[in-house]
Amino acid sequence: MLASLSLDLDNQWSYMKTHGDPGWEALPSYLDIVVPRVLEMLRKRNLSITWFVVGQDAALEKNHSALKMIADAGHEVANHSFHHEPWLHLYSEEQIQEEFQKTERAIESATGLRPTGFRGPGFSLSQTVLKVLKDRGYNYDCSTFPTFLGPLARWYYFAKSKGLSVEEKQKRKQLFGKFKEGFRPLRPYDWKLPGGSLVEIPVTTMPIFKVPIHLSYVLYLAGYSRFLAKSYFKWALRLCQLNRVEPSILLHPLDFMGVEDKIGLEFFPAMKNSYQQKCELADWMFGELQRRFQVVSMREHARQAQIRLGIVPKPVVLT
């Protein structure tokens, strides 16, 4: 059975912007710290994963060195939108087309690679986004997050976010999804669209219970008990095996950064821990995945899902 790993390369400014913190307009970055750190961990385990890159970061010369390292190491680079706004579902079709076009050009300029996969910021998705993805020749989407805990996560987010205006709260009212997201499938499936089909690779949650199992949540549990955190993840993988679910595990940059990096963002889970402790747990998780599954990139996961679903990929449209 397959498993896939992907990292949403949300930069420091994108977390600040979503959280409503001042100073994000200066676009502060920690990519030069986190990218080499994660690449070295992956190299030691001979893992090739997918990095979802924000177009605004790819457009800045100061980030090109870090992003080129990802491509040079043989990893897939995919689209995570240009402005990293979790209210992407509110955009018009024309705005989404522009958003994708700018992101594709910036990523290709920085890395030499053209993205063929997409994940919406904050799991933001709409039928219009799917239509544009299909029109532009994307091979897969992975913006769905099948959990019932979206409203609870949103409540926690608003509780930690101070000073948001009424307009800003309105934009964020669907952040992390609705309760009904928990009824979505865990296995890959195809979106039936006017131009054909597009494969969806959901972010995996624990089968049956639909609670999150990606690294940020495991690190949060480890703050109370590392034994509990490891048992939780191992049980989740065992349930995936029993239910024939191929896990797609999500990573974030802050999973590999800690208190000594002094970047703030204390609202993010486990940011009071050291990065060494977090990286040790991440490496253990990688090992558990490799022991039970064949770990591949999102592109390869989607390719094999396309074969099973009978989807014929459409060439990427250069515009």
TrEMBL record:
GO biological process per UniProt: carbohydrate metabolic process
MF terms in GO: hydrolase activity, acting on carbon-nitrogen (but not peptide) bonds
Domain NodB homology, first and last residues per copy: 14-287
SUPFAM superfamilies named in the record: Glycoside hydrolase/deacetylase
Pfam families for this protein: Polysacc_deac_1
Protein name: Polysaccharide deacetylase family protein
Organism, scientific name: Telmatocola sphagniphila
